[in-house]
């Protein structure tokens, strides 16, 4: 067990890693487990469902949650390692296995987009509401401008069919990092766990704002103030330039400090 250690944001785990995993993999596991706790703390989890995943450094394997654990129970060593075909490589510290839908959605993206190192999927209520809205996400808030372009994937039922993977990848496209699953929820991706969480946060916030705004105007889009595309694009570029050390790094660390103070058992 790894308790009461002082790992915060230095990324130096050489003195605290007492697992069978390399320091590099353990760091990813800690970050991902911490992010599960962040999502739970924000109230975006749903029982034992939904998934946050990350690629194991230097491999074609990815980490996801054991099927049966709440997000607030996930730990670094409970994460399950699977390959890009969905085969379990390392079951982690439980015998719970995985939810196949996690592989279908996340595996498709990780396999097709090597630039994406982390993906995060939630069913937060406002995101599902926007996913059901024919007009989709409206460019009405600064949060929506920060996200940039959004992709959409039509609903095909609960995602258990591996054949849907090709269509998910096609829907996301070669460069976008945010995907709205129609009638279902959202997926945010990143070239790091930090970036994926940053986009997830912004996308959830954007959906919350949109649902509230539409209720204020009775659903009449003509009453909304939508800035022109030039201004929106300027905001997207400006936001991307704020954090030189990497998109979402500082934001993620600020929330890491919250969950670490509350309960650092995710490091175990």
Number of domains: 1
How much of the residues is beta strand, in percent? 5-15%
Shape: globular
Query: Which whole number gives the mean pLDDT?
Result: 89
Order of strands across the main sheet: 4-3-2-1-5-8-7-6
Order of helices and strands: HEEEEHEHHEHEEHHH
Helix content: 25-40%
Say how many strands there are: 8
The CATH architecture classification is 3-Layer(aba) Sandwich
Q: What is the CA-CA span between the terminal residues?
A: 5 Å
- Name of the level-1 CATH class: Alpha Beta
State the assembly state of the protein chains: single chain
CATH homologous superfamily label: Class II aldolase/adducin N-terminal domain
Profile the largest sheet.
8 strands, mixed
Give an overview in words.
The protein has about 270 residues and is of the alpha+beta class. The chain has a single domain, classed as L-fuculose-1-phosphate Aldolase. Helices cover about 40% and strands about 15% of the residues. It is built from eight helices and eight strands. It has an eight-stranded mixed β-sheet, with helices on both faces. Strand 1 and strand 2 form a beta hairpin. Helix 2 crosses helix 5. The longest helix is centred in the C-terminal third of the chain and has 24 residues. The termini are close together. The N terminus is likely disordered.
What are the key terms here?
L-fuculose-1-phosphate Aldolase, 268 residues, single chain, globular, Aldolase_II/adducin_N_sf, 39% helix, alpha+beta, disordered N terminus, eight-stranded mixed β-sheet, 8 helices, Alpha adducin, Aldolase_II/adducin_N
């Amino acid at each position: 067990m790894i308790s009461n250690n002082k790992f915060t944001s230095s990324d130096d785990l050489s003195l605290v890693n007492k697992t069978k995993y390399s320091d590099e993999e353990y760091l990813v596991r800690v970050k991902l487990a911490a992010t599960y706790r962040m999502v739970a703390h924000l109230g975006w989890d749903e029982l034992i469902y939904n998934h946050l995943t990350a690629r194991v450094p230097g491999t074609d394997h990815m980490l996801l949650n054991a099927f049966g654990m709440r997000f607030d129970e996930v730990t670094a060593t409970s994460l399950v390692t699977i390959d890009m075909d969905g085969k379990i490589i390392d079951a982690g510290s439980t015998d719970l296995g995985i939810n196949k839908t996690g592989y279908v959605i996340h595996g498709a993206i990780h396999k097709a987009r090597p630039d994406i190192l982390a993906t995060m999927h939630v069913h937060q209520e406002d995101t599902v509401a926007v996913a059901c809205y024919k007009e989709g996400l409206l460019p009405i808030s600064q949060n929506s401008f920060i996200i940039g372009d959004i992709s959409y994937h039509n609903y095909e039922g609960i995602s258990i069919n591996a054949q849907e993977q090709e269509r998910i990848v096609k829907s996301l496209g070669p460069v976008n990092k945010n995907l709205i699953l129609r009638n279902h929820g959202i997926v945010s991706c990143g070239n790091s766990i930090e970036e994926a969480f940053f986009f997830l946060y912004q996308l959830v916030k954007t959906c919350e704002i949109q649902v509230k705004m539409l209720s204020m105007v009775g659903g009449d889009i003509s009453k909304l103030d939508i800035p022109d595309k030039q201004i929106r694009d300027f905001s997207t570029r400006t936001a991307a330039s704020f954090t030189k050390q990497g998109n979402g790094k500082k934001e993620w660390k600020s929330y890491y400090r919250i969950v670490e103070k509350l309960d650092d058992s995710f490091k175990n």
